[in-house]
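Narrative progress, year one. The postdoctoral researcher (J.K.) led the effort to move from monomer predictions toward full complexes, under supervision of the PI. The following entry was the first complex the group processed end to end, covering 1026 residues in total.
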Amino acid sequence: MTGSSMAVEPPLLSVKNLSVAFPTEDGLVRAVDGVSFSVEKGKTLAIVGESGSGKSVTAQAIMGIIDRKAAKMTGEIWLDGQELVGLPAGELQSLRGSQVAMIFQDPMSSLHPFYRVGDQITEAISAHRSIGAKAARAEAMEMLRRVGIPAVERRIDDYPHQLSGGMRQRVMIAMALINKPALLIADEPTTALDVTVQAQILDLIASLQGEFQITVIMITHDLGIVADVADDVAVMYGGRIVEVAPTGTLYHEPEMPYTLGLLSSVPRMDRDVSTRLEPIPGNPPSPIRLPPGCVFAPRCKYADRVPDGACMTTRPELLQAAPDHLVRCHIPSEERREIAQGVLRVLTGGAA
Amino acid sequence: MVAYTVRRLILMVALLFALTAAVFFLFTLLPGDPARLTCAKACSPAIIEANRHRLGYDQPVLVQYGQFLGGIFFGRTFSSDSPQPIVCNAPCLGYSYTRHQQVLTLILNAAPVTFWLAVGAFLVWISISIVLGIFAALNHGHWPDRLVMGISLVGYSMPSFFIGLILIFFVVLRWNWLPFPSYVSPFDNPLRFLQTMILPWIVLAFLNTAFYMRLTRNQVLETFHEDYVRTARAKGLPERTVVVKHALRAGLTPLVTAAGMDLAALLGGAVITESIFSLPGIGSLAVNSVLQSDLPLITGITLFSSTLIIFANLVVDLLYAFLDPRVTIA
Amino acid sequence: MTAERGDILKVTDLRTYFPVRSGGFIPRVIGQVKAVDGVSLNIGPGETLGLVGESGSGKTTVARSILLLAHPTSGKIEIDGQDITHLSSAALLPVRRKAQMIFQDPYNALNPRHTVGTIISAPFRIQGVVPPGGVKAAVAEMMERVGLNPEHYNRYPNEFSGGQRQRIGIARAIALRPKLIVCDEPVSALDVSIQAQIVNLLRDLQQEFGISYLFVAHDLAVVRQISHRVAVMYLGKLMEQAPRKTIYTAPLHPYTHSLLSAVPIPDPSLQKRRSRIMLEGDLPSPINPPSGCVFRTRCFQAQERCASEVPPLTEVEPGHLVACHFPVAEPPAAAASTVAAQAD
């Protein structure tokens, strides 16, 4: 991440001060508000957040599939030395599916119901390479085999509705990786799937990532999945990144009260069930009327620890707490760490 | 697929039986004596009674209905005990005594008029509304969209007889741009045919265009938000392919059902438009038959129109299954 | 926590089949989706039974069948000692005072044209009950109890967030102080931070009013948080049923083992140490379930006997039932379960 970017190779993806806003009748919806992060080649960055946190819009902005007529987009997105926000639509289009690919939450609705899965994959090939129909089909078949579709010769001519949920997501993965992209964005790829199938799909993504040297951005709300797959984590809330850290650090030394809140509200399998879950009180902010200070302040237990009510009035910056660790919070770092260790001790019943 | 079609065809026949029976019995229950209508001013009770017997109105309703059904399959003879029996070959839909013609002949004479009217109007409204509907959807929220939606609203709120009369008044009477409509076959006089039909086409297409424009726009807009359209874009397909192959293909398919049914309904007669422009089609025929209580003709037209609609229903279902692989018919 | 006093809910050998019709000349029933195929359950007063399974397991159909929202093909459903299996909808009305339901989707389960007050007071109107102090006061109290502002009495559901709507659904369900609430995936549509609020609320209401829950969910971690006992379903049948601690620390069925190992734990160091049992393939068709044990096609323990003989659900120790020829007696693969064992 940012700290280790001292390495010689520049990060594959680097997002700087990205904002996406949608004008609506009720006012300006600030879906993404000044987001910056970077991902090194071959790594997995997880973006965690709840609905409305801006994580999916961030993904769509990188993917270049935000309707530019409907949205105001500012900032920079650098992918492999190329800036995407200012890129003409045609050039952006040729990067989509070849340099950066995406898989989505619901594989049923993400595949076109009227076309055979094989044809949908070969369409992705011929969009970027001039290749004969036969060769494209052979390539599609090979990729379907690689993602674990059984009886490919038969399945390649199936329509999406003839496949199970897990198989459909495998098809989506095959389609995303068919042009060997450098970056794969997975937007809640297992949320619609059963837990045993989820394990299969996460495993598949990890093994393909190694095989094809892909960099992955995993968008999810599930802290369990993050712990499973991510090298680094960015936590989003109210359109902003509130904490970024290597995965181990985020779980064992979190500092932002929202991250703490998330960790304590998850009913994890290793927690003491005799105690109550510690939910975050209240509801997420409306993206039209974001609080003036810290976006999390209205739900934050510790906001009154900062003098002069600064949390409610002044927007905190995303600042370095440790070389790899960025936190957006007014509470002094020492105090944050103390709070966090107290919370974590309760969480794991002192066992961890 | 074949089994499905056969099953549907059998159901269709059963439905038609039920429909004709309903019409048949409904009209016999109505006040008014059909025999009384067979002679104009020269009626005397004796003539009425004679005609009643001659036409079979003295038989029980069930027997009359049986004879009607028999006529469809085997043909029948009217006034068989009179010196000039009227032979009506199968399929015999009955004999109109007010017009002294076979019902089938009357319908077959009127059908081409309605056919040209309906098909012409259909082409007008489908092409205009699909083009404008897509145009509006592509410019969602901007002025082309608002304009199209505005036109659609006006179209909705204007009754077709009003538009028809306005058009006749200005285009034909005031400005003399077109001759007064009087139907000729397109094979006899193509120019005159077009001159006659252009206004009826516009009037008939008007309301449907308003409806279909809105439908197309909404359908297409809806599919623009579908996940698979987003996938198509994420694959890096050209915007044209995204719109045409992915969004429109899925968005316009449901129109097939609506359009097929509406066309069939028009082929069964466009009452108001035909009346305004004095076109001798099925619609005019139906109005007159009702005004004259011409029971055989009413029954015949009902049978004809409902056959069209039920048949269109089947065609549309088969077509839909062909277009959308998720729909399986077996 | 097995119920010895009268069970609030007793389900005996429930089967709910849905017919599959053929095409062809005359459509006829050619098969049956055995959504629920011989399930027996019981829930004691103030107890929560968690019913877990993946999609297609039949858990939701069990929930719907219990309140006769799906028509049971055979079997017996008793609520508070009364056999309701064959009751008409009129005769069912008094039963609904005792048993209510909470649904998964708080967006679709509330009539958008009714105010919150109307929605929550509906049970009083339908049952013709006038609480002391009047309906309005009772509704206000109920709203307060589930964490809604009683001043929002006249607002419509669309003015509330997902979590608040689920609170409305809960207020409606507890209005008549039922003895049983069937919860069908009540938190799976909600965000994590809101999920925890609702789970806590349900636990508090249980303690306060002694309600029994049938808690249907796919999320094993949520079920663990709220259930006293847990039943695991697969393809219409019960695989295993045991007290919570046993299910999570000493399960016997291979399916339970693989489910537990598939749940990710939000702790990267634990997660990396875990070994995982990866199930092959997908759920078989419930129209044509595998012979013998329905799980055998994906089971790592399967042997020939599993294809020929249906394993009966047998009680291996008091309160612990398992349907397997070759149960796995080792502790679950999840390393974290050792922690769970301590924490439980």
